Amino acid sequence: MAVENVLAVILAGGRGERLSVLAQERSKPAMPFAGKYRIIDFTLSNCVNSGMYNVAVLTQYQPLSLSEHIGVGAAWGFATPDRTVRLFQPYLTRDEKRDWYKGTADAVYQNLHYIEQQSQEMVLILSGDHVYKMDYSWMLQFHEERQADVTLAYTRLPEEDLQHFGTVIIDEERRVIGFEEKVRKPKSSLVSMGIYLFRKEFLKQCLEEDTASENSSHDFGRDILPKMVGKNRIFGYDFQGYWRDVGTVQAYWQANMDMIDMSPGGYLSDPGWPIHTSDVDGPPATISGVANVGNSMISNGCIIEGNVEHSILSPGVIVAEGAVVRNSIIMSETSVGSHSIIDYSILDKEVVVEAGCHLGFGDDLRANRWEPSVLNTGITIVGKRARIPPGTRIGRNCIICADVQEDCFRRDEVKSGGIVRLKRNRGS
């Protein structure tokens, strides 16, 4: 069966609660990544590189940024009569009981009418918030060889990461014989990647049965697929390349750093499997004679007069003379003032760090008091359009909320684990 016979459905409505203020105004798939990209660029590029040109993107939480980024899909080659990318959001009708998507399966079910209208006989369910490169045509070939009812993709992760994912148990024929959902000591190191290939009619049957179940959470991984074990032909496709779920602050930071460590000539530079994105206009980056840049990714429009070490700078970032940026992610149009230090931090778009500041200060690694499960590895994050007053020192695991201005800071030091909110009477 040809890849042209596959409809790709990308689940792109993730709220990103574990990304804190970084996902306050955008969904996870819309998160900037590796300088000039968005996370969803990887899944979209995988589709077109695999030869799949009919794509549905299911959005929900804060869809504007994602919709503006994808547009008509011209950057990925969709803007032709025989290639289509469509974005869908939840909606209400007069005669149907519809609501926000209750789970991954419910999101697909609520758009089943569109899926049924398409000529493709196969449906590939994808997640829009993972970083990886995969040729889906090989998974399709595996699916056909096994005569599977459904095929899921899995990969291997280190033991310490397994408790955060659903894992699968595979027999010698790669048939799935068990599921475990985020258990502390799973029996398998094989992690489900959230990629599922169905025959369309079988998918419809599964979704209708799941919708009729009052006890279901309407999720593929928790409900639909586990019920198939021992009943249907469900197989696992072994993916052995790089794959990262960037759903936490630490995972997001690490995946960005991985892009540096695999370049130059690495992950993002493969002409045989390009990662497409919407172009961002701007002049070339400018690095002055007094600057020092090492082991970093610098996007167009950046002006560097200070020191940048093992960091990623999105378009239009300014690093003034004497400033130091290290082990950090700086998003578009952010400026770092002279003699400021940014260490092990993530700064969102249009942030202004005035002169003489130090973000990521000290060795105190206490977890954030308000979001301890989100910030506990030492990373400090700053929300969109925040303005840090001159000479401010901000410790580890801190949150500086979006839009805070200089008068939101009560003092010139924010201790580790602290937070600065928009309202002055709620500052750290």
Layout of strands and helices, then pairs:
Blueprint lengths: L5 E6 L20 E2 L3 E2 L1 H10 L4 E5 L5 H7 L13 E5 L15 H6 L2 H6 L4 E6 L2 E3 L3 H11 L3 E7 L9 E5 L5 E6 L8 E10 H13 L7 H5 L9 E5 L4 E3 L3 H13 L24 E2 L4 E3 L2 E2 L4 E2 L2 E3 L2 E2 L4 E2 L4 E3 L2 E2 L4 E2 L4 E3 L1 E3 L4 E2 L4 E2 L20 E3 L4 E2 L4 E2 L4 E2 L12 E2 L4 E2 L8
Parallel strand pairs: 1-4, 1-6, 4-5, 8-12, 14-17, 15-18, 16-19, 17-20, 18-21, 19-22, 20-23, 21-24, 22-25, 23-26, 24-27, 25-28, 26-29, 27-30, 28-31, 30-32, 31-33
Antiparallel strand pairs: 2-3, 6-11, 7-13, 8-11, 9-10
Please describe the structure with a list of short key phrases separated by commas or semicolons.
26% strand, single chain, globular, alpha/beta
What does this structure look like?
With 428 residues, the chain is α/β, with parallel strands linked by helices. The chain is 17% helix and 26% strand. It is built from eight helices and 33 strands. Strands 5-4-1-6-11-8-12 form a seven-stranded mixed beta sheet. It is globular. It starts with 5 loop residues before the first strand and ends in an 8-residue tail after the last strand. The model has no long low-confidence stretch (mean pLDDT 92).
Write a short abstract of this structure.
By secondary structure, this protein is of the alpha/beta class. Helices cover about 15% and strands about 25% of the residues.
Widest β-sheet, arrangement of strands: 5-4-1-6-11-8-12
Alpha-beta classification: alpha/beta
C-alpha termini separation: 59 Å
How much helical structure, as a percent, in the residues? Answer: 10-25%
User: How large is the count of helical segments?
Assistant: 8
**What best-fitting shape do the alpha-carbon axes yield?**
globular
Largest sheet: 7 strands, mixed
Mean pLDDT: 92
Q: What is the CA-based Rg, rounded?
A: 23 Å
> Quick one: how many beta strands?
33
Identify low-pLDDT runs. Answer: none
Strand content: 25-35%
